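Researcher: Next sequence.
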Amino acid sequence: MVVARIAIVGGGLAGLYAAFRLEQRGIEDYVLLEARHTYGGRIESVSSGEFSVSGGSNVQRDLDRFDLGATWFWPTLQPRLDRLVRELGLERFEQNETGDIVVERSPHQLPTHMGSYATSPQAVRLVGGMSALVDALHRKLTTTRLRGDQRVRHMRCAGDRIELNVEDSHGQLTSCSVEQVLLAVPPRLAAATIGFQPELPNTLVRAWRDTATWMARHAKYIAIYDTPFWREQGLSGEGRSACGPLTEIHDASMPGGSAGLSGFIGVPALIRRKTSPSALRALCRAQLERMFGPQAAAPKAMVVKDWAEDVLTATEADQDAGVQQHGSAPAASPTSGVWCGRLVGVASEWASHFPGYVAGAIEAADHGVQMLLEGQ
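Model: Next structure:
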């Protein structure tokens, strides 16, 4: 049995940052339990060199990576995240917006070009992809406190301790005894996959189940090229389509590295299940050829990440075809009963200002650590 003062359940950005904040306060009596073999959660990047999904401690400092999940942040709107990026010594760059946008309005019309417009505030990305942030935090932590392939199945209050039942990918069960828990998995996923004894208040559980998990309905496609040939044509790499399968396309090129176009697949998750990955990739590639010309038909690599098929992200409630919006945050902790002051949600969806965003994970984790340590 693992014994610690605090358990962090989830090793995405919120969980890693919560561990970082604990260690900054001199607290190393914690254990972080992550169900995946790697860290990062919905921050996941792909390397153009090995073309293998990456994220976490097993990744070398490969700067030529492309984001399959969270991608952008906005420094002027999200100064807390920006300070962290600077503190960790990470390089950032502005999203390319120079050139025309390609618009596809109908299957019966050729794509058209429209003048670009500068977004305000300016979106930025990280050199090495958003996984560079995960990797940098991971390197700051006491790695003996981090445990991958550990999925929390059940939590039980037992006197002044909380007992966690944990299962690895081989079905082997272990336990963990702590005083407090920082819940760094999305509220809907926590409510659907973790048992609590005694049960959490009904109103709180309903609110968690009604909170959509950001990215859980989405699928993202990336095509990687040697050069950003579209820029030579006066195009920004931005695209919008009413035909699909990609509805929104962006220039994903990495400074000093490979070029790329990335897009969000607008086909609903339930229909994507019936389409083979190779067929979906072929449809996306054909669309890029229609919109950006014959050079787009020959990427050196392609990948599709369907978050709706990731059981550590999405539940059945996330599979419908509705349009997802960043919602309001539910309560992060019970206000009474045995769980009060002992269990706090810190995933991005619990953030007050940027729920679902990368900055929301930093905000929620910061606030949750403060709540837990100060007994609020």
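Model: The first strand starts at residue 2 and ends at 3. The radius of gyration is 21 Å.
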